[in-house]
Amino acid sequence: xxxxxxxxxxxxxxxxxxxxxxxxxxxxxxxxxxxxxxxxxxxxxxxxxxxxxxxxxxxxxxxxxxxxxxxxxxxxxxxxxxxxxxxxxxxxxxxxxxxxxxxxxxxxxxxxxxxxxxxxxxxxxxxxxxxxxxxxxxxxxxxxxxxxxxxxxxxxxxxxxxxxxxxxxxxxxxxxxxxxxxxxxxxxxxxxxxxxxxxxxxxxxxxxxxxxxxxxxxxxxxxxxxxxxxxxxxxx
Amino acid sequence: xxxxxxxxxxxxxxxxxxxxxxxxxxxxxxxxxxxxxxxxxxxxxxxxxxxxxxxxxxxxxxxxxxxxxxxxxxxxxxxxxxxxxxxxxxxxxxxxxxxxxxxxxxxxxxxxxxxxxxxxxxxxxxxxxxxxxxxxxxxxxxxxxxxxxxxxxxxxxxxxxxxxxxxxxxxxxxxxxxxxxxxxxxxxxxxxxxxxxxxxxxxxxxxxxxxxxxxxxxxxxxxxxxxxxxxxxxxxxxxxxxxxxxxxxxxxxxxxxxxxxxxxxxxxxxxxxxxxxxxxxxxxxxxxxxxxxxxxxxxxxxx
Lengths: 236, 303
What we know:
heterodimer, A: 236 residues, mainly alpha, 85% helix, 0% strand, B: 303 residues, Rossmann fold, Alpha-Beta Plaits, 2 domains, six-stranded mixed β-sheet, 11 helices, 14 strands
C-alpha cells in the first residue's frame, strides 16, 4: 500500500497547487454558515442539528465536483497510461485517490468546527451530540467520495463525471422521503436504502455499529465498482 | 531482452495486431515502423502491460508480461505518444512523483532525478510548471520520466513526433547515447529516423509484420536493388539493347534514364555494350532503395 501513499501525496498536491481546493473550502464554509444562521434563527435553540443535516445534503452536490477530475482527467491527459504502466496495483491507485478526496473533505468539515465554537461562546451545546454528528458526516464523506470516484471512472469527461456522481447519489437521499408514501411492507427496506436514515442516530448522539457498517458497505461497493470499471476498460 | 510470439489483439471484430512475432536482443535498438493505425501503439501498450493481448505471449527482460506484469513494469521505461504530464505540477515535483511511483528508493531519488534531467537537457528547469512548457520541453520531460528509474528497457512511442527539426535532432542524439546501454524499441513513421538510429527494423502494416530484419535486409525484402543508366542514345534502342544482355531482368524507361533490374551486377556488361555502340555514358549507378521506397513498395504490394 506504499503506492497508495504516493498517490495520496500527489493528489493532495494537485488539489492545493490549483485553486480547486480553496474554492471548495470557501463554498463549503459559506453553505455551512448559511445553514448555521438559518438553524439558529428558525429554531431559536443552541443546536447544530439543522446545519449538520443540511450539510449532509449539500455534500451530495459538492463532493462529486471534488472527485470528478480523478479518473476522468487521468484518462484524458494520458496519465492513466503512466499509472497503469508503473508497478502500482490498481487497488492502490483507487485507495490513494479516495483517501486524497476524503482528506480534503475532512478538512472542509474541520473548517465548520467554527460554528460549534460560536455556539459554545453564546450557549451550551451538547458536545457528545456535536461529536457523533461529525462522525456521521465523516461517514457521508467517505461514502460520497467513493461514489464520486466511481462516476469519474465511467467517463473521461469531467463535467459528465461530476453530474453522474450527483445523479448516482440523489436516489439515496430521496428514497428515504419516498418511503413515507408507500405501503407499510415496503417502507422499512426503502428507508434502509436512504443515507439520512443512517445519519439519524448519529445526530441524536448515538454511534450505532449497524450504521457504521452501512456506510462502510456503501463505500466498499462503490470502490469495488470503480475497480471493476477501470479493469474492464483495459479489456475493451 | 524482448520476445514477442504470435501476439494478437482484437477489439471486437477489428484485429489491431495480427499474429506478430519478433525479438529484440540486449542493447539493440529496434525500429517499429508502419503507417498510422498499423498497430504500433497497440503492440507497445501490450509490451508495457497497459493492454492485455487476445492471444500470444510476450516476455520482457525475462518476465512474462501477462504472468508477472509488476516485474516487467519495474524494468521498462515507457513514453506514450503524448507525454503523460500533470499540468499543475512543476518538472521537479512531477519527476519526484514518477520516481516514487516506479519504486526508486528515497535515498537515490534525488540523484536519479538529477541524472535524468541532465540527460534530456532539463538542468535548471525543476521549478517550471508543466502546463507552461512548449511541446519540445514536454517531450523532454516525457523522456526524463521514462529514464528516471534507470530501466534496462525503453519503449518509446513516436519520441520525435511534433518536434521542430532542431528538437528532433537533439532527441535523436539522445537516443544514440542511450542505445547500447539499453534495449530500445521505438516506433515512428519517419523512416529517416529509423535509418539514423536503429539496428533492426520491424515493419508492420494492418496489424501484420510485413518485413523484419536489419536495415539492409528489410530494404532488400521490400524492394530490390536497381541500376540507373543514362546514355546518349535513343531510349527505345538503348532499352532493347540493354534488355538483351544476359544479366538483365527488366528495363524500364523513366525520366531519369533507364531503370534496370538484374540478377547480378550488370554494370560491366552495360559499359562494354555502350563502348561497342559508341554511346557516351552519363550515368551508371547502383541504387539501394531507401526505407521510404521499401515501405511504399510493401504498402503497395499488400494493397
